[in-house]
């Protein structure tokens, strides 16, 4: 059963237009206000939960892969209201290569960083080594008796270049001063 409105059709159209542009106020707006406050709080603490640059530097090899690792390092992460920007230090010769792979790097870093890396800024320059250099082993001179023993043991080898390589390997093993390479008889018992 359809009933006609008692209002004039023109008045009804004006009322619809007025309702379209005027919004009613909620009677209980508390939940949305709590939601906005919670979002503001988590936005501030969420930035602290993302990994720092040091964590990215430690995992950089597995994030970008073996091909790009020698050419670039993460330097800093700066925040903005749209998201965070990762600054990469890149050697100048490889800057076009890294620029070409920037979107892939951004996606990988964003996944490993847990979120909102929106851009990558490339700064050209020399890379600082984040990995400590391997300590050099001290070498002692090879004694004449050891040299004669090496040459006597390899005398049966016909190929001269192979024999020279084996003698050089033996000399390197014997002259390396490494305290862990003691014989089983000389190791302390625990």
What are the salient characteristics of this protein?
alpha+beta, single chain, 46% helix, 3 strands, three-stranded mixed sheet
General description of the model:
- This protein is α+β, with helices and mostly antiparallel strands and 190 residues long.
- It has eight helices and three strands.
- The chain has helices spanning 9-21, 30-49, 53-58, 60-64, 95-100, 102-113, 144-153, 160-175; strands at residues 72-79, 84-90, 117-124.
- The chain has a three-stranded mixed beta sheet.
- α7 (144-153) runs antiparallel to α8.
- The N and C termini lie far apart (99 Å).
Give the topology, please.
Elements: H1 9-21, H2 30-49, H3 53-58, H4 60-64, E1 72-79, E2 84-90, H5 95-100, H6 102-113, E3 117-124, H7 144-153, H8 160-175
Helix pairs in contact: 7-8
Question: What summary fits the major beta sheet?
Answer: 3 strands, mixed
List the secondary-structure elements in sequence, H or E. HHHHEEHHEHH
Radius of gyration: 35 Å
Mean pLDDT: 78
Report a brief summary of the structure.
The chain has eight helices and three strands; from the N terminus they run ααααββααβαα.
């Amino acid at each position: 059963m359809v009933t006609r409105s008692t209002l004039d059709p023109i008045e009804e159209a004006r009322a619809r237009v007025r309702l379209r542009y005027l919004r009613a106020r909620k009677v209980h707006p508390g939940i949305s206000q709590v939601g906005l406050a919670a979002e503001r709080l988590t936005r501030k603490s969420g930035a602290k939960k993302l990994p720092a640059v040091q964590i990215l530097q430690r995992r950089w090899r597995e994030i970008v892969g073996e091909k790009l690792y020698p050419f670039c390092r993460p330097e800093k992460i700066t925040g903005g209201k749209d998201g965070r920007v990762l600054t990469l230090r890149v050697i100048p010769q490889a800057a076009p290569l890294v620029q070409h792979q920037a979107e892939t790097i951004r996606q990988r870093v964003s996944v490993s960083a847990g979120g909102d890396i929106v851009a990558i800024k490339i700064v050209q320059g020399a890379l600082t080594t984040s990995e400590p250099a391997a300590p050099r082993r001290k070498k002692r001179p090879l004694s004449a008796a050891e040299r004669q023993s090496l040459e006597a043991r390899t005398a049966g080898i016909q190929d001269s270049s192979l024999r020279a390589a084996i003698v050089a390997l033996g000399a390197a093993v014997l002259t390396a001063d490494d305290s862990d390479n003691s014989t089983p008889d000389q190791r302390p018992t625990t």
